[in-house]
């Protein structure tokens, strides 16, 4: 797979603070990429450079095999920012048509695309309602549709599920998978780790302007794993005296164990078998992205301070 986007050594400074400090990463075409980081980390600033809203102080951006040019490439990028702007007095159908035409679709193509998306997301009955009459979740759906309906090569979604109920969040999630399957590349910016684990192929974690983690969700979890296993077995504490592991938690029908360095899974299994116990399950427990995020971010001083 080729890269749709390659960002090299990007820097952006605001007064005395580096909002983005020497960040590089690349994005494979058709992938779903998670841009993560605590408040003030520099995510929005990074996105604003990728979408041509800000010029970087230094570094380079390659888009679709060429140096990024806001003028030419913006039509190929759909950006749904966290702070969203819609014209409140406009009718919803007209609004979607208007935005689709701004993105370069002819009136008839725009009409076709809007109808198709309104149908997919069960929004047909909204056509003649006014934007100001939409609930938060409904306007979120409208924003999503207007971001993706011209099928841009790169789609950037900032907290796309905020305000959505679980049914609508699932609808949007399925559409995100579909868009990626049909060739769009997605950047997904969020603090919600459980969504990232489920959706993203690749993530980077940014903290205080710097990239502190870059990899696939699975590789990152492997890198941070701590030799913890869950064993489905029914036993009493007296049976568990061994140098092979320590018991982290003793539940009624399972144990959470931390294996001693150098001890293999088979050693542990043998230990239980030798005790005549029957084992119902045996699984490695990988850390959640949330645990990894908190560990890494807590290892550096918390949120940034403003400098005078
Ligand atoms: N236009 C600006 N002028 C001055 N400082 C700015 C500007 N935009 C952002 N910053 C500063 O740059 C840093 C990064 O901000 P940014 O908005 O990129 O973070 P973020 O990761 O998107 O945060 P959040 O998750 O809270 O939206 C912050 O310290 C912020 O105060």
Automatic annotation (TrEMBL):
Which InterPro entries does the entry mention?
Answer: AAA+_ATPase (IPR003593), ABC_transporter-like_ATP-bd (IPR003439), ABC_transporter-like_CS (IPR017871), ABC_transporter_ATP-binding (IPR050763), DrrA1/2-like_C (IPR025302), P-loop_NTPase (IPR027417)
Q: Which SMART domains match?
A: AAA (SM00382)
| Gene Ontology terms for molecular function | ATP binding
Q: Which organism is it from?
A: Polluticaenibacter yanchengensis
Q: Which family does it belong to?
A: Belongs to the ABC transporter superfamily.
Judging by the UniProt lineage, the source's domain of life is Bacteria
ABC transporter domain location is: 5-233
Its protein name is ABC transporter ATP-binding protein
Keyword Lyase carried by entry = no
Record's keyword terms, sorted: ATP-binding, Nodulation, Nucleotide-binding, Transport
């Amino acid at each position: 797979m080729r890269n749709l986007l390659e960002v090299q050594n990007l820097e952006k400074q605001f007064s005395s603070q580096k909002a983005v400090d020497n960040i590089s990463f690349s994005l494979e075409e058709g992938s779903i990429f998670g841009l993560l980081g605590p408040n003030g980390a520099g995510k929005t600033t990074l996105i604003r450079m990728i979408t041509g809203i800000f010029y970087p102080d230094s570094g380079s951006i390659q888009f679709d095999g060429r140096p990024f040019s806001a003028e030419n490439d913006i039509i190929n990028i759909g950006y749904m920012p966290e702070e969203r702007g819609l014209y409140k007095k406009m009718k919803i159908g007209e609004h979607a048509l208007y935005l689709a035409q701004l993105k370069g679709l002819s009136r008839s193509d725009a009409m076709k695309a809007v109808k198709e998306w309104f149908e997919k997301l069960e929004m047909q009955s909204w056509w003649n309602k006014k934007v100001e009459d939409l609930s938060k979740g409904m306007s979120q759906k409208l924003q999503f549709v207007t971001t993706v309906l011209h099928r841009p090569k790169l789609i950037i979604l900032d907290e796309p599920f905020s305000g959505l109920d679980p049914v609508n969040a699932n609808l949007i999630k399925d559409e995100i998978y579909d868009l990626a399957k049909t060739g769009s590349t997605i950047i997904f910016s969020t603090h919600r780790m459980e969504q990232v684990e489920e959706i993203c192929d690749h993530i980077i974690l940014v903290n205080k302007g710097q990239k502190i983690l870059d990899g696939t969700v699975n590789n990152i979890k492997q890198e941070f794993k701590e030799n913890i296993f869950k064993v489905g077995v029914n036993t009493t504490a007296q049976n568990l005296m061994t140098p092979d592991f320590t018991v982290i938690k003793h539940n009624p029908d399972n144990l959470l164990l931390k294996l001693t360095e150098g001890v293999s899974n088979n050693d542990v299994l043998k230990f239980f078998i030798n005790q005549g116990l029957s084992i119902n399950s045996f699984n490695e427990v990988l850390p959640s992205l949330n645990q990894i995020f908190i560990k890494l971010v807590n290892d550096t001083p918390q949120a940034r301070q403003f400098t005078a």
